[in-house]
Write a structure and sequence with these properties.
Length: 98
C-alpha cells in the first residue's frame, strides 16, 4: 500500500465541520472513482493542526489520481480549507503489517 500524509492548518474562516463536509463531498464525487483509492482519514494533532492519511493500493494509482486532481468538482472549496503556507506532505510505502 501507498499512503499520502498531508499536514496542514485550517484557514482562519474554516471550521472542522466544514472541512469534514467538504472532504465527504470530494470522496463521494471524485476520490471513490479513482483507481486504487482505499480511504482518506483526517486526524487532529495536539498542536491544533491536521494530518490527512490517504491510502492507495499503489504509488502508481496515487500518481495517476494526482494528475486527475484538476477534475475535482468544487476543488476551490476544498483548497479553501487550508491555511496558505502550512501544507507539508510525505509518502509512505507499506513494507509489512502485523
Amino acid at each position: 500500500m501507498y499512503k499520502d500524509i498531508i499536514t496542514y492548518e485550517l484557514a482562519e474562516n474554516k471550521t472542522k465541520e466544514e472541512l469534514i463536509n467538504i472532504a465527504k463531498q470530494i470522496v463521494n464525487d471524485w476520490m471513490k472513482n479513482q483507481i486504487g483509492f482505499i480511504k482518506w482519514e483526517i486526524h487532529t494533532n495536539s498542536d491544533g493542526s491536521y494530518t490527512d492519511i490517504v491510502t492507495w493500493k499503489s504509488k502508481e494509482d496515487a500518481k495517476i489520481a494526482e494528475k486527475e486532481m484538476v477534475n475535482i468538482p468544487n476543488a476551490s472549496d476544498w483548497y479553501g480549507c487550508y491555511k496558505e503556507g502550512t501544507i507539508s506532505s510525505k509518502n509512505l510505502i507499506t513494507i509489512a503489517e502485523f
